[in-house]
Amino acid sequence: MKKKVLVLDIDGTLTNSQKQVTQRTKDALDDIRRRGHIVVLASGRPTGGLRMITKTLDFDKFGGYTISYNGACVTDTATGDSVFKNAVPDYVPQWMHQYAIDHGLGMCTYVGNVLLCGTKADRYIERETNLNEFTRMHVEDFSGYMKTDFYKVLLTAPPTLAKEHEARLQRRFMNRLSIYRSEPFFIEVMNRGVSKADAIAGLLERLGLEREDVIACGDGLNDLSMIKYAGLGVAMGNAQPAVKEAADVITLTNDEDGIVPIIEKYILG
């Protein structure tokens, strides 16, 4: 049996519109893991923000990997160890903290299941805290965290202001950092070269497998890199047009358990 690596985006792919994993999808994933195939979750969420999904899918029983921060970190769920990482340079949290203070933005970053907040928590930071079910801690000075691996710094502001500062920071850190808005009010600051494809490549090197062994399923623009990289790139029926255009196969929507026919045809079939 040729071992396959099934890489799944979460929102809009693995979960339905109610943010739930259906029993049919879970049963199919259980089946292939019993047969020795590997399931990987790939998300823009922080590592700690994936713990409820890994619990739902019994990763403690079957093992597997998570790709978090859009590819900046790969974690072995069996051990909790980071097996691939692309952290921001040491100076970034402190620099972005001061920039946020100077320009009246919100700023936070992540350690484990804690949101380290360098400014007053605005409604956007409150949203991020609640979404990931994190605790929050205020930090006056990030210089004491210079040896900590940070994978993302988040700046927050109302959409018009966020757009302005996104462009300003992109010019300032061109070819050094990856800076973009994931939501109209979120400016994500990550290291250069972070992508889900790069994370998969790092994981495959550890596993001794090839890209031809990978099936990647997604729906959003941040899934493009892994869909183009995988041996089989799959777009969900609800995917963005650009994702469908890049994919090898288009399946059913996330509300129709679109992952299941892919498993049945390309892994079990």
State the secondary-structure class.
alpha/beta
CATH superfamily of the largest domain, please? HAD superfamily/HAD-like
CATH fold topology of the largest domain: Rossmann fold
Mean pLDDT: 95
- Main sheet: strand order: 5-4-3-2-1-12-13-14
Classify the helix fraction into a percent range: 25-40%
- What is the CA-based Rg, rounded? 19 Å
Q: According to CATH, what is the class of the largest domain?
A: Alpha Beta
- How far apart lie the N and C ends? 12 Å
Uncertain parts: none
- One letter per element, helices H and strands E, the order comes to EHHEHHEEEHEEHEEHEEHEHEHEH
Total helical segments? 11
Plain-language structure description:
The strands form 2 sheets. Strands 5-4-3-2-1-12-13-14 form an 8-stranded mixed sheet. Strands 8-7-6-9-11-10 form a 6-stranded mixed sheet, with helices on both faces. Helix 2 (23-34) packs parallel to helix 11 (259-268). With 269 residues, the chain is α/β, with parallel strands linked by helices. Helix 9 links the parallel strand 12 (214-218) and strand 13. Helices cover 36% and strands 24% of the residues. The protein has 11 helices and 14 strands. It has helices at 10-14, 23-34, 51-56, 59-62, 92-103, 123-132, 159-172, 196-207, 224-229, 241-246, 259-268, and strands at residues 5-9, 38-42, 65-68, 73-76, 82-85, 106-111, 114-117, 135-138, 153-156, 177-183, 186-191, 214-218, 232-235, 249-250. The model has no long low-confidence stretch (mean pLDDT 95). It has 2 domains: 5-86 and 194-268, 3-Layer(aba) Sandwich (Rossmann fold); 92-191, Hypothetical Protein, Haloacid Dehalogenase-like Hydrolase, Chain: A, domain 2 (2-Layer Sandwich).
